[in-house]
Amino acid sequence: MTHLVTRRLSVEALLAQVQSPERGGTCVFLGTVRNDADVSAIDYSAYESMADEEIERILAEAHARWPDVRVMLNHRLGVIPAGEASIAIVAAAPHRDAAFAACRHVIEEVKKRLPIWKKELRGDGSEKWVEAHDHR
Amino acid sequence: MSKVSVRFFARYAELAGCSWSAVNLETPATVADVISRVREVFPGTQAMPPRPLAALNQRHVKLDAIVNEGDEVALLPPLSGG
Predict the structure, then answer these.
(1) Which residues of A touch B47 (CB under 8 A)?
(2) Under an 8 A CB cutoff, do B82 and A114 touch?
């Protein structure tokens, strides 16, 4: 199953994959495209097969570290308008501490490891590749 | 001589002028050797940093990782997912 999508992200669909009655705490993280510096949209591209495998590895590591937590994520690719989400992560656990910790861990690993790149599209028609240190 | 697949992404694909190619070199070699060969074959990639991020067969590796015939080396601009 791929974690990479080109449609609008659905938090509901992700929640359905992790929530259950014994998990009382669910944490949702959404990363959305900011409109700073006249950015109207970001075009996301990826080394798709590796990104998908890397996501699998990140989720497996999270599962090994927090066995009671279920975590899922989707990353959207293609042109995403400002204000729409590029990534959604959901983590459900028996208690909130583990849900927050796992969710935080996964987004930080995503930032460090996923072979995904952003090109900012500006209102004036110009474009600019984003280097990692520009946005944290 | 052995053939090694090379993939370029994002800005590096623009520098190389392609996203997928192959280079010939003696193997076993290192990822750094492959990058040196790439800089010869695709002069635009000389604008890449001296030590770019790289993946070997879809895993992040250091530049001293060993490359064999048929392997795939990917050159990755600074990551900006999320």
Answers:
(1) none
(2) yes
User: What CA–CA distance (Å, rounded) separates A53 from A49?
Assistant: 6
Q: Which CATH superfamily is domain A4-124 in?
A: Molybdopterin biosynthesis MoaE subunit (3.90.1170.40)
Taking CB atoms and an 8 Å cut-off, how many pairs form between chains A and B? 70
Contacts of A51 (CB under 8 A, 6+ apart): A3, A4, A75, A114, A115, A116, B81
Q: Which stretch of DSSP H or E encloses residue A98?
A: helix A96-113
Chain A CB within 8 Å of residue B79 CB: yes
Place of tokens 């495998």: A53
ipTM (interface pTM):
0.94
B2-76: which CATH topology?
Answer: Ubiquitin-like (UB roll) (3.10.20)
Q: How far is A20 from chain B (nearest CA, A)?
A: 26
pTM for this model (two decimals): 0.94
| Type of residue found at B55 | A
Domain boundaries in chain A?
4-124
**A98-111: pLDDT as tens digits:** 999 999 999 999 99
